[in-house]
Amino acid sequence: MEPADFSGAEEEPAFCNDLSDAQVTIVGLGLMGGSLAAALKAQNACRRVVGVARRTSTLQMARSMRFIDHGTRDLQAGLAQADLVILATPVRDILGKLATIGDDCKPGCVILDIGSTKARICAAMERMPPHIEPIGGHPMCGKETSGITMAEPNLYRDRVFVLAPLERTAPRAQDLARQMLEVIGARPLLIAPQRHDRLVAAISHLPYLLSVTCVSGAEALAQDDELVWRLAAGGFRDTSRVAAGSIPMMMDILLTNRGPVLEAIHHARERMTALEASLRAEEIEALETQLVAARNRRKEVFP
Description:
This protein is 49% helix and 13% strand. By secondary structure, it is an alpha/beta fold. The protein has an eight-stranded mixed sheet, with helices on both faces. Strand 4 (84-87), helix 4 (91-98) and strand 5 form a beta-alpha-beta unit. Helix 4 packs parallel to helix 5 and helix 7 (193-222) packs across helix 11. 35% of the residues are buried. The model is unreliable at 1-11 (pLDDT under 50).
């Protein structure tokens, strides 16, 4: 009997399991994507870093700063040979890309996003083609400034980096993501998408709205007395800091995390009402109790 000829049999794709052998494609080279590229290159962490951006000037800047090995405005070309894809664009842009890029990626490609909300992104990841390995992510860091010129290789160091793997996410894909976090010095934290969104609504998205309210309140007073801005000092600067952030980014966050943000607003309104009631009634002990509780918790969280 002639031996069976398997020369035409379809071979299993060779998956990349080691970050050092991987091509990492970063889609979006702003502060977050640019800093990630910078960190990977600084550590010589992977075989190749490819950047995808809308503007040629951004790609030129990234190349001149040696943050990437190659840059392109062609998303399909940037994805074609990627072993690990990082989506570092605004949340609604990420949602749009997740619906279309699956067929542009090779089998076994790991797709990790770094968007600020997770439930809708992870739901969109569930609908991706089966040959893709998606995993949700969110680094708990950033600045009010944006753009490739603000990027820095140490942005992620010692910062919590949320990972939200799906049930379909293979262990090897999670391991590749963890390898990247180890290289950039981040601290991984596994958390479910819905739980993530509820928690960040309270500690990130609500503070933004309170910061906006702080500025708006002072603006209302300034209609009668503009001296308020000359008196504004460190306390106002610190409290209002995040109001200076990116409006498109925050619009994406608020619209894709609407339910948890509304819940956070409700709880904040209850606390403000309690403070107002104590002050109005001159209930000194009750007012002081609320202030002391908040001060003590703040010192616990940030010694």
